[in-house]
Design a protein that fits this description.
Strand 1 and strand 2 form a beta hairpin. It contains no helices and 11 strands. The protein is an all-beta fold. It is elongated. The strands form 3 sheets. Strands 3, 4, 7, 8 and 9 form a 5-stranded antiparallel β-sheet that branches. A 4-stranded antiparallel β-sheet has the order 1-2-6-5, with no helix packed on it. Helices cover about 0% and strands about 50% of the residues.
Length: about 120
């Protein structure tokens, strides 16, 4: 009898907060993303979100590039391929980084501009 190996997650890239793309390195992802469900458990709000039929592209041999909308903060992620369960991995988005603030900073009301990266979606 023939059987497929369960998917295995080796690593997940940390990605900027305002980008919802991540790269998953592993094996046994199959050849059809329609048989895949990605699960993300969000620590911040104690919420499990399944992403059936995710938007993914296969990269050479063992990598996936997937789009997961509306995700943020630290999470645990796992996936299934045709019902076979993978291991789970923790991943986190890159923390926001402030590089500059307009000067002078208003004391009581007013406007200031904060420049930086990974602030998330508007």
């Amino acid at each position: 009898s023939f059987s497929y190996g369960a998917p295995y997650l080796a690593s997940i890239t940390n990605i900027a907060t305002n980008q919802n793309w991540l790269t998953i390195v592993g094996e046994n992802f199959g050849s059809n993303v329609n048989q895949m469900v990605i699960y993300v458990y969000h620590f911040y709000n104690d919420f499990l979100k399944p992403y059936p039929n995710p938007t993914c592209w296969y990269l050479p041999s063992i990598d996936l590039r997937c789009y997961l909308p509306n995700t943020q903060g630290a999470s645990v992620m796992w996936l299934t391929v045709n019902g076979l369960l993978s291991n789970n991995l923790t991943h986190a988005y890159i923390s926001p980084e402030m590089t500059s603030v307009t000067s002078p900073i208003p004391i009581a009301g007013g406007t200031m501009t904060i420049i930086g990266t990974s602030f998330g979606n508007d």
